[in-house]
Amino acid sequence: MHMQWESLANEHILGIAPYEPGKPVEELERELGIPDAIKLASNENPLSPSDRVQQAIMGALSHLNRYPDGSGFYLRQAIAKKHGFTPDQIMLGNGSNDLIELVVRAFMRPGDEAVVPHPSFVVYPMIVQAVGGIRVMVMLRDYRLDLEAMARAITPQTKVVFIANPNNPTATMVTADEVEHFMARVPERTIVVFDEAYIEFAMGARRSCSARSRRRRASRGSASATQSPTRTRSR
Questions:
Q1: CATH assignment of 73-233, given 3.40.50.720, 3.10.450.50, 3.40.640.10, 3.30.413.10?
Q2: Which pTM does this prediction carry?
């Protein structure tokens, strides 16, 4: 008798709904019958790569037969210098999805909890579910992350808390004061993931409002990730 592959798969994986990415600009223009659409979704730059970037790409073509520096030595040096860290505090990934998944897979075990705002980046609960974690969903308040409710949702079983700032898809931000107050209530055992994938779209004094907590996060282990159980909490 032929065995179904589903019977061999991790039960947490089987319950994950497929992720639906944003549509390519060309497809959107065909559907709506419009030209020259500007796409702001998927954290994509609507402008073409600069001349300097294109020149750098052309300069690297002759080395494509070799593996690149997997550690990203020079990039980590530059990022560390810009943000006041040491290079060994910087980890690179293939987009934010990669880094979020690394955090969850490295620190969460089956039965551990992750506090997840909702609605927010759909990848958070998907990855938590994939490792058998419990997703504690905290509803937004006035389209903003409710950090007070998220702090109350933390239990001794909470391993990770996700904060998207600006939030995707509501485009709202939490303030630096709200972040400071929230971080003061987070226990040492809990990792706070600040996802600032869209921070370049934010403007003014509230931009990167988690910056005031950078030093504290660096010392406290925070990072800038059948269906598994889900709990939903509102304010």
A1: 3.40.640.10
A2: 0.78
